[in-house]
Amino acid sequence: MPVENPGRSRARREAAHRREIHRRQVRRRRVVALAVVAAAVVLLVVAITASGGKRHSGDARAAEQAPAVSAAVADRSVRRLLKQGKPVYCGGRNRPYVALTFDDGPGPSTAQAVRRLAALHVPATFFLIGEHVAPFRETVALEARGNAIGDHTFHHVQLTALSLVDAGHEIADTANAITAITHQPVRLLRPPLGARNPPVDAVARAEGVLDVLWDIDVHDVEGATADEVVAAVSHHAQPGSIILMHENAVQTLASLDAIVAAVRAKHLRPVTVPELMALDPPSPQQLDAGPRGCGLPEPVSSG
């Protein structure tokens, strides 16, 4: 019987020993990896359970902050209504959206109002006086971020008291001043004091702007207190409402949080006027009925 070489036998034993050590190391690494994964899963479940309400709240805030509809769709909706040549007082009353609008800016309080609304994830529509635009160029640019900008004439004059030529200049000069800063066309007009008539409507249409009135006036420029401003919104806001406010009214500026809370308490979402016209446009019957189509008496005046 052949005698095994002692050196070769020892080498085989050492190789077998090394293989066994390697197998044990692999098993240990697998066990450790599985333990780490299991611990991570447990921690994730605990974190989700502990913060479940906060996660949903964050998702809701993100949804509120996102545009309700694309800018292109909103713009097309405004242009479609513009072709009908009739003023808008409210939306269609069919979906849970309202538009917060602010007149007479820009001014010293505008940036504060815009930043507060942005913190609340609320877009708004600002109707600007043309002669105020150049002195507040940076503010106008700030307003244009996520909000809609409208025309409130160059000198805040009653358009029905002007010649049609002068009315056209008041509208066009303001739109040009705004566009020079925002590089966006102006599609909306808020006639000062709500003063309009068919000839003024025709001028607005010729200038490419939609007459936007309102169905809720908080009467802030007429001296309503902060509580009265909030109460006007809380009592009267409904789907499709266009709410008239003024950003330079101290009580309105101080009440922005409460105004937004009042809207949301009624399960309504604030959007811009163009978004409202896309999501819940007024019906042809509403447009034909004028203010009565939104439950208002004639005439509407303020602004």
* H/E element sequence: HHHEHEHHEHEHEEHEHHEHH
> Hey, roughly how much beta strand do the residues contain?
5-15%
Counting DSSP H or I runs of 4 or more residues, the number of helices is 13
Q: Compute the CA-based radius of gyration.
A: 32 Å
> Mean of residue pLDDT?
86
Assign a percent range to the helix content: 40-55%
Main beta sheet: 6 strands, parallel
Tell me what you see in this structure.
- The protein is an alpha/beta fold.
- Helix content is 52%, strand content 10%.
- The strands form 2 sheets. Strands 1, 2, 3, 6, 7 and 8 form a 6-stranded parallel β-sheet that branches. The chain has a two-stranded parallel sheet with strand order 4-5.
- α4 links the parallel β1 (97-105) and β2 (125-128).
- α3 (71-82) packs across α12 (273-279), α7 packs parallel to α8 (198-206) and α9 (226-236) runs parallel beside α11 (256-265).
- It is elongated, with a radius of gyration of 32 Å.
- Mean pLDDT is 86; it is low at 34-63.
Offer a concise description of the structure.
With 303 residues, the chain is α/β, with parallel strands linked by helices. Helix content is 52%, strand content 10%. The radius of gyration is 32 Å and the shape is elongated.
Any chance you could write out the topology, listing elements then pairs?
Elements (H helix, E strand, L loop, with lengths): L5 H45 L1 H14 L5 H12 L14 E9 L4 H10 L5 E4 L1 H4 L3 H7 L4 E4 L12 H19 L5 E2 L8 H9 L3 E2 L4 E2 L8 H11 L5 E5 L3 H5 L1 H10 L3 E3 L1 H7 L4 H6 L14
